Amino acid sequence: MSTAARFLWEFVKSPTTTAAVGPSSRALAEQMVAPIPLTGDPVVVELGPGTGAFTEVIQRRLAGRGTHLAVELNEGWAAELGGRFPGVESVCADARRVPELLAERGLGRADVVVSGLPWVAHAPVDGIPLVELLAGVMAPDGAFTQFAYTWTRWAPPARRQHADLRATFEETVVSRTVWRNLPPAVVYLARRPRSA
After folding, report:
1. Is the pTM of this model over 0.85?
2. Could you say which of 48, 87, 157, 180 would form a disulfide bridge with 116 (CB–CB 3.0 to 4.6 Å)?
3. Transmembrane stretches, by residue range (predicted)?
């Protein structure tokens, strides 16, 4: 089965846990990983990597530096990702376990979090939005990216997450539309978590 067909199948099976209807384009991936520093040994956490569209670009940008932890809820995709990218530690887990996963590995704080999660994954649990939980384990100058399809930006879950990003980070910007993605998308970039 092709990658596109697998994505569509997973989306149809579980639209609340599969954010994308197909693999993201290289143009979108480049915008998503732009905050990863070109020097040093950053800790990069990738949420919901799926079949690895962002993973591949992250690995190329890191070029053997730092640590790349990929957290995927789909067991099959998590296993496949680990096999395709030996430099990535692929873990089958819920994104809310990121603080625990970082602590278990002695990684301290994440420098960049790249999220391909669906909006539903960001809903508050016990009153705490996911972005707030993640901000608590990010470096003071850390960055968070999340993509959204242009038609979903005005839906209530998207507006709620944008408000959560503005409340949790000192700076939040939304990119111009990435037309070279199907469907067209935007990237939310949030920097400097207030709780760091």
Report:
1. yes
2. 48
3. none
